[in-house]
Predict the structure.
Amino acid sequence: MISYGKQFIDQSDIDAVVDVLNGDWLTQGPAVETFENDLKTYFGAKYCCAVSNGTAALHLTGLALGWQPGDIVITSPITFLATANCIVYAGATPDFVDIDSITYTLDPNQLEKKIKAYQAKNIKVKAVIGVDFAGYPCDWKALKQISDMYDIQLVNDNCHALGASFNGNKQYAVEYADVAIQSYHPVKHITTGEGGAVLSNDATVDEKVRCLRTHGMTKGSNQLINNDSPWYYEMHEIGYNYRITDFQCALGSSQLKKLDKFVQKRREIAKKYNDLFFNNGRLIVPETANNINHAYHLYPLQIDFEKLPYTKPQLFKEMKQAKINLQVHYIPVHTQPFYRKNYGFDVGDFPVAEKFYHSSISIPMYPSLTDFEVVKIVNDISNFVKSK
Ligand SMILES: Cc1ncc(COP(=O)(O)O)c(C=O)c1O
């Protein structure tokens, strides 16, 4: 079966993990700090705190930025549930802004309209989470201008875009957003099994995230009310165990060395897909632009099923028989029963996102996909589209 995404692990990754397993520290040891330093260097962040997964990174970001009940936080409906859920974790109120039909990322014009509509009701939007969907960076210049103009916190859910660049800059995530978060789940560009990180240039955010990563415990002498013994620690607010292990971080550091190669391979595969699907009038391939370098976490292919005599589930079924596993990213978050029931969203609220959902499929995309497999995927999909 050809899956839609898959990790790439080589002997140097295995050796790095085995080294840690043979050492003294399985968790809370030096490999965590090394991975954090490696991430800081690659992504140009002053601070980085590695955590147990991307969802934990989002959760702690909301808490560190002080989101609370009554705050409005806006994100894209085309994202994984976790991006919106972290707003709910903080007790804030989630809202959405539709995507741009070409980039599939948050539409800055729609965002400004929504912020103004809130302003007219005397409500200030607290934060915006842009999602670099599929590996295509949001229009961060526009988002930053809006966030500066309306004094709104800006977060980059960067999970899909490791190794992407915006205006020639691979370190754009932390340059434009106040906080960037990442996930190292096996389908992402680099993996630690489960894992994530919060990156920023803000010492206060980093200190808070670090403290909340370990139960809210602090031993920092400037924060302690009492400090009468060497074992002494205090807890001033509720935190979590969102730590990541040393062997995961050793894998992360080893994987990070290969990130550029992984992304290059994904771009080569995307180019083959683009070339082979070219001229098929029934398909829309993902766009790119001169000012961005796509990281192709996903390759969302759009098919206008409404004009065809067969459905998306039928295509899925046939491709499964042909041993190709397709996926869909994502069911628009606002249409989930939880968001409809608790926040009053409904089908039809964000038409561009919904249209994208109905037409898109994610076809296999990972560095070890072979030329033979790429051709088979293209042929099987093209033949199916043609034959009906
Ligand atoms: C856009 C986005 N945000 C957040 C997450 C959450 O990351 P994790 O699975 O590591 O918790 C994911 C992972 O799928 C994601 O794709």
